[in-house]
Amino acid sequence: SSGINAECPLRPGMLLARSIQVAGLSTFAAPAISLPTITFPALSATVQGRIITDYELNGAVSGKIEVNKLDNGVTAVALDNGSPTAHLGLYSGVGTRHQTRDTHGILQIMKHAWLGSTTRRSYVWAHRVMAFHGADIKMNVARDHSAITATCTKEKEWLVLDHMCQSIICPEFFEHEVMRAKPFVLNETSKALANPENVLLEEAHRIAYSGGLGTPLYAASHNIAGHGRDEVLEFWEKHLRDPNNTVLVGIGMDIDTVSGLADEFLWSLDGRGLETPVTESWTGSRHSHIEAGGNTTRAVYLTQGAATGTREALLLNLIRHVVGVTTSPAVHGGNLKTKLMSAADHAQKPHSVQCLNINYSDAGLFGLSVVADSEEVGDVLHSSIGVMGSLKSGISDEDLAAAKNKLKLEIATQREVSLMGLVGLDGLLSVSPSTTAQALAAVDSITSEELAGMAKAIAKSSPIMVTLGNEKQVPALKELL
Q: How many angstroms separate the most distant Cα atoms in the chain?
């Protein structure tokens, strides 16, 4: 029986993934005034035998995050917020960095064949049932993790989760379904690489890391041409059956329900776990240029960053707001500008400067993204790097307070709109979720001395640079140091 109910009120599925955080030219600075500090009331709760975290936003409690480790190693995470819908997320600590030259593209194939045949269902039946209930199961593949997500009514969470888990528990990945997925993989790659920002970041990862993070996020035709059912099943058996690397998140459900679902559908996971991944090694001092027509040049100038959840990552996030959002009035043509944008005030043509902070489980990238006229890109880069270097001597109390307020608002907002992704990744990293109040207190505890120390560490890191445009106008990396 499919348990079909034609009257289920549904909302669209929610796909969440770690995002690159950007602060840039679209944010205007405030006048030089005394700024108030944003505060959020603290809440508390205690439940014996479980890790409990309050989920707060603007002082309102939306539920409690509860974490439970099952006997077989699977982690269950729940937030019962009283919603009539259930948001489900199945997270695995396997991403493109775990693919080799021989296996690259298999995860991308799995993504487009996930709701396929298993030993318990057919391709047609799986799609019929999910379409009837309005549930849209999606898989997202990132560099260091993958996620399968869906949204449904509470009385149907068991049915939807069953279909979400079957390609982990008992997949078939028949040859014709693998072949059907390949055009979707290539179409996704084509669309992504039509965006020059993705092209720059792909190349930046390639030259920055000697390990798995240097593996492309997108797959080309030559990567997937030789992959068939046997190769996909072999990768599945080797990488996706580790219960200690699997997290089930349920939003709108209590921990007993999520734990029961995890125990019912994931009890058979018994893989030995991932082989020890190659240690990521930062290369540094490398410059790659991609020739392109036109009068615009794009560049990313990146140094070694910090891992997700670390104090260093928090400091880099604050620096991102110091240079991207500030109260210092830099007026040109009647417009208020950020520190990065005002640094190249002499530039005669439109340009954009943004600060990037990209974090992974054990590494990261931090630096600048620049778009400028080919004749002025060198000056814009020079000026922007100078702004970052100036932080070594410290910043004003006013600029620090403004940046903290902006970062705290960003953290609170993320916990409202991207909570499932955040707690799913925390579960993969075996990090206990913190309260919003604790996260905001961590921001408040940062001192200008800490920030200056982090700026000095950035300056000591050997940078890498990727440029796209007219090579004749691009400065050499050594000219920027």
A: 70
